[in-house]
């Protein structure tokens, strides 16, 4: 709180034990208004599950009449992701020598610079970080037009979509409130 850190846990919290869900919910609610720094922690997270959850939310909105099929856009789907309150990463660093994303933030890294480090996380040093930053800086000029085209393709949201997004955010907050007060 002293440093203004907003804690965000992304993932399917229902897969976690009740006492852990409660602690996570309490931390997220306690820090939800902090805006100096954001700490995103992926816990019980897979990109496929995140995308499926987003599609289920949109389908539910269409079935309930809150949305029309014509409202469904990339921007709407992005707003239904666990990471909707965070900007997409500009740089993703993958350690361990693996050259794959391992079902991690697949939707969000479409316009990111991805750096693969042939070192395990515990050995990742400042020199590895600097190499990743240099790669990002060298790639930046090529990424900008791709990101701009992606933003233009996403278009704008309809008023129905905006209302739906507001309701979805309120529903998620209510679920956190409920979890934070649950008896373990």
From TrEMBL:
GO molecular-function terms, A-Z: ditrans,polycis-polyprenyl diphosphate synthase [(2E,6E)-farnesyl diphosphate specific] activity
Reactions catalysed, as given in the entry: n isopentenyl diphosphate + (2E,6E)-farnesyl diphosphate = a di-trans,poly-cis-polyprenyl diphosphate + n diphosphate
Broadest EC class assigned to this enzyme: transferase
GO biological process: one example: polyprenol biosynthetic process
InterPro entries with a match to the protein in the record: UPP_synth-like, UPP_synth-like_CS, UPP_synth-like_sf
Keyword set, alphabetical order: Transferase
Name this protein carries in UniProt: Alkyl transferase
Native species: Cryptotermes secundus
């Amino acid at each position: 709180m002293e440093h203004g850190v907003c804690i965000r846990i992304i993932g399917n919290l229902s897969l976690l034990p009740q006492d852990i869900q409660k602690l996570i919910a309490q931390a997220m609610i306690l820090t939800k208004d902090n805006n100096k720094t954001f700490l995103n922690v992926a816990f019980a997270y897979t990109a496929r599950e995140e995308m499926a959850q987003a599609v289920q939310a949109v389908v539910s909105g269409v079935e309930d009449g809150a949305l029309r099929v014509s409202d469904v856009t990339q921007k709407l789907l992005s707003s239904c992701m666990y990471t909707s309150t965070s900007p997409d990463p500009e740089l993703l660093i993958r350690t361990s020598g693996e050259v794959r994303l391992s079902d991690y933030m697949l939707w969000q890294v479409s316009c990111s610079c991805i750096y693969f480090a042939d070192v395990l996380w515990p050995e990742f040093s400042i020199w590895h970080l600097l190499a990743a930053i240099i790669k990002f800086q060298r790639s930046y000029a090529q990424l900008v037009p791709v990101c701009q085209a992606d933003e233009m393709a996403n278009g704008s949201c309809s008023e129905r979509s905006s209302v739906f997004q507001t309701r979805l955010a309120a529903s998620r907050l209510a679920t956190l409130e409920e979890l934070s007060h649950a008896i373990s």
